[in-house]
Specification:
The protein is an alpha+beta fold. It has eleven helices and 20 strands. It folds into two domains: about 270 residues, Naphthalene 1,2-dioxygenase Alpha Subunit, Chain A, domain 1 (Alpha-Beta Complex); about 100 residues, Rieske [2Fe-2S] iron-sulphur domain (Rieske Iron-sulfur Protein, 3-layer Sandwich). Strands 11, 12, 13, 14, 15, 16, 17, 18, 19 and 20 form a ten-stranded antiparallel beta sheet that branches. The longest helix is centred in the last third of the chain and has 31 residues.
Length: about 400
């Protein structure tokens, strides 16, 4: 890595360009982005229908933090750091039910479902201890259309405010009624988290990168985005049958059998994105949440749960099967495309190319990154070990020390 004094990017032409290549493989920057971009943003945990009974819980694991949400005996859903207040052991994994209490697997400290420390084995060996001071640390939480989100660093706009421009588009699909389909698909991709986010934020690549979508859908390549960084594109099943049987059968069956939806929605696929790393894809038969979580400088975790309205009809099961086949292939294509970009970004002398008008959501995402982490405006990475200090100085210079990407 060249450690000469970095300089800020200068405008060499009128075209809009993306972030410099070094920002996609620098571990210090990934750590900074986690602190200043991921933690202050809304992150998806589960659907409310995974928390039907008191003691039902779900967890979300981030790069260094873990959160749990659970339904209390009073019927309220609450979110906490998934960490015992004794020695820091992780409390729960995955999703399930913990009955009456949350019990630490290390020393047996147990917590009420409302987060209070309920019992400590050999409590007399902790002289002066006040259990009321050692409850689970609460986490900001909000539910929208049945989807449970948390935000580890509180503040900023609510989910209701962020989605207000588009919420009515999603309402006919009755997301609140949906149930999980199997376990979430969780996989590691060999690319920086921003490469995967960039890919998810634009449809410019669909005609070439996703031939199945191109065959079966009239894809909205532009979409729209609001001032909070929530974007949506609306794609409609083509009247012309696809030559591929899975796509052709879905085109035929969805409008014919999903009569519990308005006619327009039986044919419409909605693709939402929310800064900095969430995609919500809504189909006539189901919904998925596409969550991109940083893992290291050149790897990220893809978390992909699927949900559907309860419907035991054979036709509904067939449509979900077809959707899964179609979108599994799209997932493979997105992974290959993203990993090819990650490989190419290290090419000697690569400079970011111009961005299309179709990539306007990427422009918005990058602008938010620049506001939270102005160090990404530098053409080269700062000297090793200095990135955080350089970023702090740049924030001070711009008077935005408390800025966050959300």
């Amino acid at each position: 890595m060249n450690e000469q004094t970095p300089i800020a990017l200068t405008e060499v032409d009128s075209m809009t360009r993306g972030l410099p290549a070094w920002t996609y493989f620098n571990q210090e920057l990934t750590e900074l982005e986690y602190q200043r971009v991921i933690l202050p943003s809304w992150q998806f945990v589960c659907h409310v229908n995974q928390l039907k009974q008191p003691g039902d819980f779900a967890t979300l694991d981030l790069m260094r933090d873990s959160v749990l949400v659970t339904r209390g005996k009073d019927g309220e859903i609450r979110a906490f750091m998934n960490v015992c207040r004794h020695r820091g052991s992780k409390l729960l994994d995955g999703a399930g039910s913990c009955k009456g209490r949350i019990r630490c697997p290390y020393h047996g400290w147990s917590y009420s479902l409302d987060g209070r420390l309920a019992a400590v084995p050999s409590e007399q060996t902790f002289p002066g201890m006040k259990k009321a001071e050692f409850g689970l640390k609460p986490v900001e939480m909000e539910v929208i259309l049945g989807l449970v989100f948390v935000r580890l660093v509180p503040g900023g706009p609510s989910l209701a405010e962020m989605f207000k421009d588009f919420i009515e588009m999603a309402r006919p699909y009755r997301l609140e009624e949906m149930e999980p389909v199997d376990q979430p698909w969780i996989e590691t991709w060999n690319c920086n988290w921003k490469v995967a986010v960039d890919n998810n934020l634009e449809n410019y690549h669909v005609p070439v990168g996703h031939p199945g979508y191109h065959r079966m859908l009239d894809n909205d390549l532009l979409g729209e985005i609001n001032s909070h960084g929530v974007a949506v594109s609306e794609s409609v099943l083509k009247d012309r049958p696809s030559p591929v049987w899975t796509e052709r059968l879905y085109q035929k069956m969805a409008p014919q059998f999903l009569t519990d939806l308005p006619e327009k929605n039986r044919r419409t696929w909605l693709f939402f994105s929310m800064v900095p790393n969430i995609g919500i894809d809504i189909y006539p038969d189901s919904m998925d949440v596409f969550q991109i979580l940083p893992k290291s400088a050149e790897t990220c975790v893809m978390r992909y749960p699927v949900f559907c309205r309860p419907d035991d009809r054979r036709e509904a099961k067939v449509l979900r099967y077809l959707n899964a086949r179609i979108n599994r292939q799209v997932g493979y294509e997105d992974q290959e495309l993203s990993e090819r970009v990650q490989s190419g970004l290290r090419s000697n002398g690569y400079q970011p190319g111009p961005l299309s008008d179709y990539e306007h959501a990427i422009v918005d995402f990058h602008d938010r990154l620049r506001a939270a982490c102005p160090v990404v405006t530098l053409t080269q990475a700062p000297a090793h070990g200095s990135l955080s200090a350089v970023n702090a100085a740049m924030l001070t210079d711009t008077g935005s020390g408390d800025a966050a990407a959300a």
